[in-house]
Amino acid sequence: MTATIKDVRPSPLAGTWYPADAHALRQMVDGFLAQAKPAVPEGRIIGLLAPHAGLRYSGPVAGYAFKLVGDLQPEIVAILCPYHRPPYQLYDIPFATTAHAGYETPLGVVPVDRETLTTLAELVPLAAVRGDQEHAIEIELPFLQRVLPHPFTILPIMIIHQTEDLIEQLGHALARVLKDRRALLVASSDLSHFFPQQTAQRLDQATLAHVRNFDPHGILQEGGQPGEGACGRGAIAAVMWAARDLGADSASILHYATSGDTAGDYRQVVGYGAGVFFARAN
Known about the structure:
Distance between the termini: 38 Å
Number of strands: 12
Low-confidence stretches: none
Structural class: alpha/beta
CATH architecture: 3-Layer(aba) Sandwich
């Protein structure tokens, strides 16, 4: 599968955000998955919420989300995230994706679905970039590579502008291009940033309540001051709108923790949540 992919985005994260050695990375990811004991929703899983920090910090939470999809067989996984540091040339464009044909991790190369990206770009403004340093797409890939036993492609979307009309447009457009595919949606987002543990827990529970209530409008409005809401609130909301168009009617929170719970420093923490969007079984 990977031999034919020549234009590959090299990993800027391997060796820092996660191990560069394939064996060590497999052991780390498999350990997080083994420890996760999520409540399995009664219905068809359509989308996930997963955090995107360095794996030693957010991996124990992300494992709860990805543990659920081992029995699924998606042919394409759409991963949405905030574009944390877009180049100034993209400031007037709301959404970006990779111009490469695949993403590389120590576990192999994941192909990008260029054809579907071309179709999506006919529906929403979408710039293609090369050599991006964005971590929030790539950090989810080792989990997908370990839990999905068959080949799959990805649809990576980095969100620059999180205004409600654009985010809703993106969500509906995603559903249009994925409606006849075996697809999985992933919202890659952390929660509050750099508050004391008790404050972070209060802020994060307000955010997660909107996830639980399947309320994309509420997610986009949460967090009046910098760092209070989810950094990927646009990604979460777009996944909600797309998941709803694809049949989802319910959401649940699978796990919550902060960086303090893994690093032991509770003075300034980052919140992490895992969730699932699904269509209830009749």
